[in-house]
Amino acid sequence: MLTYWITDEPCMLPGTATHQIGVGGFVINNNKEHYLHKLILQYAGALFLSIQVLVVKEKKCPSKSHGIWKLPTGFINKVF
């Protein structure tokens, strides 16, 4: 882990990484249209919500998670 402590005080960062930072996203365009998967939620014959959601399948994942659709996620390798 490469760091640069700016202040004159002692560096309070641990010597090794203790956490991973992850990200996730939910994508909707201006027309509230989504791109890959359409969800229709119905209750007692009434239509409450009809949307499409961007979902992905991981190329490399544990066998128990193989083939599962999920929201796009990932790890941050550069923080601005």
From TrEMBL:
<dbReference type="GO" id="GO:0051287">
    <property type="term" value="F:NAD binding"/>
</dbReference>
<dbReference type="GO" id="GO:0035529">
    <property type="term" value="F:NADH pyrophosphatase activity"/>
</dbReference>
<dbReference type="GO" id="GO:0047631">
    <property type="term" value="F:ADP-ribose diphosphatase activity"/>
</dbReference>
<protein>
    <submittedName>
        <fullName>Uncharacterized protein</fullName>
    </submittedName>
</protein>
<keyword id="KW-1133">Transmembrane helix</keyword>
<keyword id="KW-0812">Transmembrane</keyword>
<feature type="transmembrane region" description="Helical">
    <location>
        <begin position="39"/>
        <end position="56"/>
    </location>
</feature>
<dbReference type="InterPro" id="IPR003293">
    <property type="entry name" value="Nudix_hydrolase6-like"/>
</dbReference>
<keyword id="KW-0472">Membrane</keyword>
